[in-house]
Amino acid sequence: MRVKPKSTQFHQGREWGKVALIAAVVIYLALVLLLPTLYVFIGAFSRGISPFFATLTSFDFTQAVRLTALAVGVAVPLNVVFGLCAAWVIARRRFRGRTLLLSIIDLPFSISPIVAGLMLVSLYGRNGLLSNILQFLDIKIIFSFPGIALATMMGGMPFVAREVIPILEEVGTQEEEAAKTLGAGEWQTFWRVTLPSIRWGLFYGVVLTTARAMGEYGAIAVVSSNLIGRSQTLTLYVEEAYRNYDSQSAFAAAVVLAALAGATLVIKEFFERRTRIKNEESLEE
Amino acid sequence: MGEFLTTPKPILLDVRLNYLQNYLQTMTVANTQSTIPPAPKKNWQRFSLPWGITITYLSIILLLPVSALVLRAATLTPGEFWRLATDPVALSTYNITFGTAFVAAAINCMAGTATAWVLVRYDFPFKRVLDAVIDLPFAMPTAVAGITLTTIYSEQGWIGALLAPLGLRVAFTRLGVAVAMVFISVPFVVRSVQPVLQELDHSIEEAAWSLGASHWETTWRVVLPPLIPAILTGTTQAFARAVGEYGSVVLIAANIPYQDLIAPILVFQRLEQNDMAGATAIATVLLVISLVLLLMVNLLQAWRQRYEG
Questions:
Q1: Confidence of residue A127 (pLDDT cuts 50, 70, 90)
Q2: DSSP states of B144-206
């Protein structure tokens, strides 16, 4: 904790400045973040509980949940495997182009989701680069589930690697090498030495990837045909309902997504408190 | 080794040195005859599976689609590309996108630095909650942000109703685009500055005070300079995020050309009109700009690492 300056008399004039600054920041965050978030919940229950549950049990909504769950179910495990491999390669090996690889992994953070969607269209779309092969094999990707899955994968790609790399670098290789000298194989070392030491970072990376996957919108809007009840994910459902002046349904679906976002923040807080306690313990030692 | 060096008996030492010499000789001989496989090769074998997965996945998910877009753009003649990328509507969307994103990033540059300062330096009730809430825009789907911001900032909404008597319309105007861009880019500057501020040595400030510097002088000339790389990194990230935003803006804006239409939404509209060439040209411009911004963030971070040691 910060040590408070001893000469309180000198700093007394600053008390007002301090209060004013805190107030300004709180008002700013209230206007930009807090009130909008609060309104998601109020909007969902504006007409009471029963319309809320009516939305949640409607066919269109459950179909949207199903499709989102399916996309998440495909994208998250693949992104986790990739994230672990990429983190391992980047943290454990020094090679030329390492920084370049790191930047490429970060790319989905800075590419506009619409541009990302368009990339998929120009690769797999009707006149796309692979259109002849896909037509020959009779595979449909754009305006179909694979396109949604690919868009979801692209957006959530960097998170696991981003969370795991710093932990792998901090843990170092000593324990892994010790395990290997004691005769452990590659898989044994990974499962019993590496994985336990990165598990919290990995867990948080998975949470972030999942949150992003559920909230993916722009790229999916491009690659999905957006047919209600068939190719509509939760975010597309929210937009469609809102545009059709059915704001109650839109907010009911939004509350589900916002609750999941809230859960993400709670998990993050828990994760950070854990690492902080661990760090403090290691400092005391 | 320690015991080896402190052994007092010279004869024994001689024996040991001989042994060591022999050992080293056999080692070199073994190495030149390469009966022991060289270490690097073994490393390659060990890492081949993660390497393979990393490269394959990156290629399928990212590199192939990026090259598809670029190749697609390359099929246009330079003149055609130029005409599509710089037609009047496209030019106006660049103006609106970058101008509004710049304003949003500037607001978050100041507000974010103030927020980081308040969170690190002061204690007040519900501080931890406020700290946790900063990350909401990362976790909240942009479509959700879009509908709730539109409702709140519309003329009947909580905040919009207060601004309407002042003649300020937010939702369905450029101001609304700015609000959405501010919302989605709140965390960047705060999360970039916070750790640096935490690490900052308090004693330097105290030294400045004790040397007679006023509070403002200390803030401007002692505290702020080390924060500048972090502030710039966060601001550039916020700008990059705001430039590419689609989900929240498409809902809060009226999406009318020359008024509040931003470039990513124009790409989407071109695609809906089956104008693949137009969509590709504008998307390529956006892609190049996001690559340049990514490069800038990397350079800023490299500078920062040197700066902060």
A1: confident
A2: HHHHHHHHHHSTTSTTHHHHGGGT---TTSHHHHHHHHHHHTHHHHHHHHHHHHHHS-HHHHH
Residues of B in contact with A34 (CB under 8 A): 133
Token pair recorded at residue B253: 């804006």
Q: Which domains does chain B have, with CATH numbers?
A: 2-69 (no CATH), 78-308 (1.10.3720.10)
For the complex shown, is ipTM > 0.85? yes
pTM score, whole prediction: 0.85
> Which chain B residues are within 8 Å of A103, Cβ to Cβ?
294-295, 298
CB B188 within 8 A of CB B115: no
Instruction: Please state the domain extents for chain A.
Output: 58-284
Interface mutation target, options B49, B54, B205, B216, chain A, most CBs of A under 10 Å:
B54
Give Cα B203 distance to the centre of its chain. Answer: 31
pLDDT of B152-193, one tens digit each?
Answer: 999 999 999 999 999 999 999 999 999 999 999 999 999 999
Q: What is the mean pLDDT of residues B64-83?
A: 94
Q: Write the CATH number of the domain with boundaries A58-284.
A: 1.10.3720.10
**DSSP-assigned letter for residue A126:** T
Specify the DSSP class assigned to residue A83.
H
User: Which tokens is B257 given?
Assistant: 């050309």
B263-286 pLDDT tens trace: 999 999 999 898 999 999 999 999
Is the minimum CB–CB distance between A171 and chain B shorter than 8 Å?
no
Over residues A15-38, the pLDDT tens digits come to 888 899 999 999 999 999 999 999
Chain A residues 115-154 with a CB less than 8 Å from chain B: 115-116, 118-123, 127-129, 150, 153-154
Alpha helix segments (H runs only) across chain B: 2-6, 10-33, 39-58, 64-74, 78-85, 88-121, 127-133, 136-139, 142-153, 160-163, 174-184, 186-199, 202-210, 215-218, 224-244, 247-252, 263-272, 276-308
Structure tokens at B199: 């690490």
Closest Cβ opposite residue B244 in set A34, A103, A110? A110
Cβ distance of A265 and B135 shorter than 8 Å: yes
Contacts of A17 (CB under 8 A, 6+ apart): B215
From B245's Cα to the closest Cα of chain A, the distance in A is: 6
The average confidence (pLDDT) of chain A is: 87
Whether residue B146 and residue A92 make contact (CB cut-off 8 A), yes or no, is no
pLDDT score for B34: 41
